[in-house]
């Protein structure tokens, strides 16, 4: 009897559970296994029925997984990833790549040696409206771009109302929480849409409104070499959730409403055109599409879409924003080396 392939997920939080469920959905006959990122003993209640629970990394590796998804807290991402890569197991690393350039540095050589086996899980790039928005920008649908603004925020206690938000990863510095790391999807897609930025000025604050030890509000100005400026606002505070990207161009204004999966074009007073709308979109589809793509990466038939260098560049941008906030100065992003 042939042995079915094994798929490994590291972590047991909400995103790990989503990956476990999606692996089972895509590969009904496969064995899906899980190991706790913290070392605690897991149960079927934690990770679902018919999930293989491993007691150690050695036990998991002995099952020869064909791929692994690292969904631990960000400070642990690379410690797990390098163990897997040393055994030539392809890894999908949940965003962000890790929590700091300092954490990345000792693993740099191993990671770049195996870069063709690494994908970073910025799943927003697989969303239907994201792909349409990028196509519209590439087609110069609003002419020359004059400025860009991003607004993303949601009241942190509403994220996972069944649990104490103050104990969750998002709220804890030791687990890689805070607005900059948790909402780094926005920083990744800005680089994807508009290329690399040269400088950043940032104010990151803890308003003391949430009883957490990380920044809950960020305002930043990212500037490209041609002086295109992007205003970025991110927070854990807005009671009415918002997630938009607005591009002001010579011929009109393009607005991407991520929460409602829609795109509108404004070309004049009372002239609004809906270019894309799919409010009923199942958001799990972007995770499934990401996973389908990563399986091909693991098989060696395609290259990563969001590769190691992408993850590192976004992490470098985050570090530059933190440095700017700490010093009150404009920071040259390229000056930060891992």
What do these coordinates show?
This protein is α/β, with parallel strands linked by helices. The chain has 2 domains: 6-124 and 287-305, NAD(P)-binding Rossmann-like Domain (Rossmann fold), CATH 3.40.50; 145-249 and 315-335, 2-Layer Sandwich (Dihydrodipicolinate Reductase, domain 2). It is built from 11 helices and 15 strands. The protein has a 9-stranded mixed sheet with strand order 14-13-12-11-7-10-9-8-15. A 6-stranded parallel sheet has the order 3-2-1-4-5-6, with helices on both faces. Helix 1 (14-26) crosses helix 10. The longest helix has 20 residues, at 308-327. It is globular and about 65 Å long. The mean pLDDT is 95.
Per CATH, which architecture of the largest domain? Answer: 3-Layer(aba) Sandwich
Strand order of the largest sheet: 14-13-12-11-7-10-9-8-15
Shape: globular
Mean pLDDT: 95
Q: Supply the number of structural domains.
A: 2
Give a brief rundown of this model:
This protein has 338 residues and is of the alpha/beta class.
SSE topology:
Layout: E1 6-10, H1 14-26, E2 31-35, H2 44-47, E3 52-53, H3 57-62, E4 67-70, H4 77-86, E5 91-94, H5 101-104, H6 108-113, E6 118-121, H7 128-138, E7 145-153, H8 179-182, H9 185-194, E8 199-205, E9 217-223, E10 229-235, E11 242-249, E12 253-257, E13 262-268, E14 271-277, H10 284-299, H11 308-327, E15 331-332
Helix pairs in contact: 1-10
What attributes characterize this protein structure?
338 residues, Rossmann fold, six-stranded parallel beta sheet
